[in-house]
Amino acid sequence: MYDAFMSEYELLGHMTQFKPSDTDPTGYYIPHHGVLREQSTTTKLRVVFNASCPTSSGISSNDIQMVGPTIQDDLLAILLRFRQYKYVLSGDVQMMYRCVDVHPSDRHLQQILWRDNSSQVQVYKLNTVTYGTASAPFLATRCLYQLGLDCKDDKIADVIKHDFYVDDLLTGGDDLNTVSHIRQEVTKALSSACMVLRKWKSNAPQLLSDISESSLDLNIGSPEPTKLLGLGWHASSDELMFLVDSTISHTNSTKRDLLSVIAKIFDSLGLLSPLVITMKMLLQRMWLDKLSWDEPLSPELSAPWQAIVRKLPLINDFRFPRIVVCESYTHLELHIFTDASERAYGACAYVRSANDEGKCMVRLLMAKSRVAPIKPTTIPRLELCGAVVGTHLYEKISKSLRVRFSRVFCWTDSTIVLGWLQMLPSRLQPFVRNRVAEVLEQADPADCTPLTPGHFLIGRPLTSLPQPNLEEHSTTNLTRYQRIEQLRQHFWTRWSKEFIAELQQRIKWHSSKDSLKLDTLVVIKEENLPPLKWRLGRIVAIHPGTDGIAHVADVKTSNGIIRRAFSKICPLPVTTESG
């Protein structure tokens, strides 16, 4: 298999033998080895080139290469869009890296040693972008992205630029003709760069009827699911599933075993969050007990772990509907629920869709959970952390999906968190203030509906139900008087409780202010009297406390000297003008 792979490599012109006279002493020799992938339906053995191997100088080729930025959409965004389409289509670019040539002047930096069974060791140069070099992913994806930039059809250009994850295509649409057009045009655009799309698969067989069998996924018609970006997908039933190795030892388990199981569960959408977070909480307990990697678990930890191991094979039986919206929907809502406990917090997002026929569908779109920090904290703070996670879900979903939600709801059962979101940030502690600001950056709880011209004309949307006609409604003098008196009392109460208190602010986390001094003219606040009955006085003595700071003063009034706390006296705002 190794010989066949290398022979094909040379036959396709992807590597060329160096002549002895052309050997460059400044070249770099890349070690290579084979990787056997039994699950692969096309290339069982792939040769991997290790450009991270250091030379005699201690520096490797990858050490001096620039990696380049990420220009494609991330994995989660592509998977989220994959769940919105009625008809989906997946494909793979054949030998994508080897479709991109390396400039001849740089090929001496990609030298390898190889020989057939019957020949001597020869020096070869690799002519294409090589899998295993640090810059390979960027070089290949940048060429693919350029094909999208050069495409004149905006729809096809958008698919090439945003629906590819490295060499895997995951796209779709709500109309068969549209998806068929996408497949044909994307294939044509990539063929201009000698890139061939293969391993086609779809939940609509009619989309693949005109494709040769050699270009189809070999799993079509098989009961085994196809892996799409690490996620299992059964095209015939259009369901998502997970493929987890259940061959785990039931005895002598260690912390290393638990971490290995967690790492094997690839769940970027968070559909298995209740299970994964349980294992992460158990792993946290192992860290608290300071267990080494290969130390057997204690009975207190072994029992819950064994219970998880016994139920782990059931994951392979889980089925999740791929599509999250109903057919021909006219109303679309996003509901994000957040919650927390003493040990974990998280959020989940549901999509609710409805059409004109009265059909309604509610589906789980994604979720995210996190283990609570080891340092003890309060439940409201963890609830706030859950709200932050929910905000991140909303931000990711709104940027990834190509739909417009009619309404978006973010739910929390913590009244304290809702109170924090309504408070001034300056009155909150740093931990709370920073997270409240993060939530408010994405959503204003006081303005959840976009403003329209109707809000400025009639104070509400134009689509709202009309109010009763009050043109001929008569208002009596008594009703008018009661309304005016109600407003007067309302503003008087606010003035007496809010403005007067502003004269003597003593908030500990603000900058310090000058304390009350002798001979200061003050108003003595009396809760049981109206403000016009509050007495005036002048401070004649100040009494410092044990901390050296004055909190009490003697005030001389018309009825004598009384002692009051600073919180009960307010200095009058006296201003002086220099003449």
From TrEMBL:
| Pfam families recorded | DUF5641, Peptidase_A17, RVT_1
Q: What's any GO biological process attached to this entry?
A: DNA biosynthetic process
Query: Which stretches make up the DUF5641 domain?
Result: 479-572
By its UniProt entry, which CDD domains does this protein fall under?
RT_pepA17 (cd01644)
- Where do the Reverse transcriptase domain residues begin and end? 67-204
Q: Which InterPro entries match?
A: DNA/RNA_pol_sf, DUF5641, Retrotrans_Pao, RT_dom
Instruction: Give the protein name, as stated in the record.
Output: Uncharacterized protein LOC113506031
Species = Trichoplusia ni
Q: Which gene underlies this protein?
A: LOC113506031
